[in-house]
Amino acid sequence: MLNAANRHFRHRAGVYLALIAIGLLLMVPTFSPPPEGEHLKQIKARDFITIHTRNTPTTYYEGRHGPTGFEYELMRRFAQYLGVSLNLDASHHIDTVLPAVRQKGDLGAAALPLETSQEGIHFSQAIIPLQPLLVYRRGLNGIDAPDDMPGLDIGTLGGTGTSRVLKQMQGQYPALSWKESSELEVAELLAQVEAGVLDAAVIFDHQFRLNRLFFPNVERGFTLGEPLSMAWAVPSGRGLGLLDAVNDFIQELRESGVLDQLVERYFGHDDYLEYVGTRTFLSHLDSRLPQFDAMFREAARNTDFDWKLLAALGYQESHWNPEATSPTGVRGLMMLTNPTAKEMGVSDRLDPAQSIDGGARYLRSIKERLPESITGEDRLFMAMAAYNVGLGHLYDARRLVEQQGGDPDSWADVRETLPLLQHREWHSQTRHGYARGGEPVIFVRNIRRYYEMLNYVERSRQQFFQLEQSALVPTDSLPLFDIVPPID
Predict the structure, then answer these.
(1) How far apart are CA 203 and CA 163, in angstroms?
(2) What is the CATH number of the domain that holds 261?
(3) What tens digit of pLDDT does each residue of 174-185 get?
(4) Where are the alpha helices (DSSP H) in 93-144?
(5) Side-chain half-sphere exposure of 272, counting CA atoms within 13 A
(6) Could you tell me which residues are beta bridge partners of residue 122?
(7) Which residues neighbour 295 within 8 Å (Cβ) at sequence distance 6 or greater?
(8) Which domain holds residue 171?
(9) Mean pLDDT of 243-251
(10) Which of 93, 388, 393, 410 could cross-link to 435 by cystine, CB 3.0-4.6 Å?
(11) Could you give the 3-state DSSP secondary structure of residue 244?
(12) Catalytic, out of 317, 323, 377, 458
C-alpha cells in the first residue's frame, strides 16, 4: 500500500515538475536565427551598400581621372553585381575597419588578412595572396636571410597580418623584435626606412612593387613565411546571404579570369615612370619619332607649345608607341583615358594624329584652368603635373604648401609637397585624399630631361648640318650623341 502511494506521489510530482519546466521555457524569450538573406534584402531595399575601406594605393584613392585602386575596382563591380549603388567610407585606419563592420555593416574591404576567428565577423574566401616581404635601407650590408633580422630596427603595420608572421618567426629567432603601428600606411613606413629612422620594414610584396619607385634607397630583401590571404569581412549574426553573395562574386571573377586581369593591371607593372637611358631614347629618336614629327609640330602650332615639349610628353607616356595600353586602361601615344578622349573629341585613341592633338589640347586646357597667379615655367610644370595626377590633387598640394608657409605658385615648393599626399598625416587634411604624389614629380622631371635631350640633339644636328654644308665634316663621320649634358 505504501509502495503504491509512493509511486502515485512520484508520478504526480513528475507531472508537476514537467509542467513547471514547460512554464519556465515559455517564460524565456527565444531567439531564432535571422533568415539567410535578411541582410542582403535590406541592402537591396535601400538600394546601396556601405563598404568600409582605407585610402591607400592598393585599396581606394582618387586617381588621375577619378576613383581607382584594386579593391575599389572589386567594390564597384560587386555593387553592380548586386544591382545597388556603392557608398564608401574611406576614413579608416586598418584597426577601425572591423569595428565599423560589426557596428554599422555592411562590408569591409581594406587589404584585410583572412583570419579563422574574429568575433562578430565572417570572412569571405581568399581574394589574392599576401606575401610578406622584408625591405631594408640601401647601404646596409649582409641582409640576405631571416638569420640577419635580429638586431635590426624593423617596423611593420599592425592589423595587416605581417606581425602574425613575425611572431611565428620569434620561436626560431628569440632576439627578433619590431615596432608596429596601425595608424601609419605603407608609404609612411617606407619613408622611415628611407630616412634612416628604421633599418627595415615588413610589408607585402605587391605593396612594395607599387611604392618602390618613390623610395630609391629602399631595397627588396626576401620573403617571409607562407603567403597570407586578402579577404572581405561581413558582420556575423545577420544571416549568410551577403557572405554567400560575396563568395559567389569572387568565384565568378576567378573562374572568368577577370580577377587575374585586375591583379595584372594594378600590380603587374610598376616601372612605367622610369627614366630610360640615353642610348634607348636616342634609338627611339631615330626609329620612332620621324613617323610623328609632323604631327607634334602641327599640334604645337595649334596649342602654342614647343613641339619638342609635346614630343617629350608623348615619349614619357608611351615611348612613342601609338598602340600603347597602360595597366589602368589608358591608351595611345599620349595615353588618354576614355573620358579625356571624349572631352577632347578624340574618336580613336590609337590614331596617333588624334592622340597627339587631343593630348596637346588637354594639356592646354589644364594650363588655362590654373590660377592666374601661377606664371612662367611654374605654370607649365604644374600643368604637366596635373596632366598626370589630376587638378584636384595639385590644388590639395598647393593648399598644403600654403599651410606650411611656402609659395603655392612655385613649382619648387609644390614639387616638395606633392609626395606628402602619400602620407595619411597629410592627405587626411585634404579634399581629395590619398594620391601617389611622387608620380607627378617624377613625371615632370622625366619630361624635362627628354625635352632637354631633344633640344640638345636638335642644336647638335643644326651644327653638324652647317658643318656638312661647309664640307668641313664628312656626313658618314657624324657621331651618335652618347653624351648628354646633366640636368639639375
Answers:
(1) 10
(2) 3.40.190.10
(3) 999 999 988 888
(4) 97-104
(5) 21
(6) 234
(7) 352, 353, 356, 357
(8) 132-226
(9) 96
(10) 393
(11) helix
(12) 317
pLDDT digits (tens, 9 = 90+) for 189-230: 998 999 999 999 999 999 998 788 678 889 999 999 999 999
In angstroms and rounded to an integer, the radius of gyration of the C-alpha atoms of the chain is 30
Q: What is the DSSP letter of 54?
A: -
402 is catalytic: no
* Number of domains observed in the structure of the chain: 3
pTM above 0.70, yes or no: no
Q: Are strands 218-223 and 179-181 parallel, antiparallel or unpaired?
A: unpaired
- Residue 88 confidence (pLDDT): 94
Handedness of CA 336, 340, 344, 348 (dihedral sign): positive
In 257-394, beta strands by DSSP E: none
With respect to residue 463, please indicate whether it lies within any of the assigned structural domains.
Answer: no
Residue 411 pLDDT level (bands cut at 50, 70, 90): very high
Looking at the DSSP assignment, which residues form a beta bridge with residue 32? none
What's the pLDDT band for 20 if we cut at 50, 70, 90? very low
Residue pointed to by grid coordinates 579593391? 71
257-294 per-position pLDDT tens digit: 999 989 987 887 554 455 566 678 878 888 999 999 99
Last residue of a domain, one of 242, 267, 292: 267
- Bridge partners (DSSP) listed for residue 108: 52, 233
Q: Is 298 helix (H, G, I), strand (E, B) or coil?
A: helix
Place of cell 610584396: 205
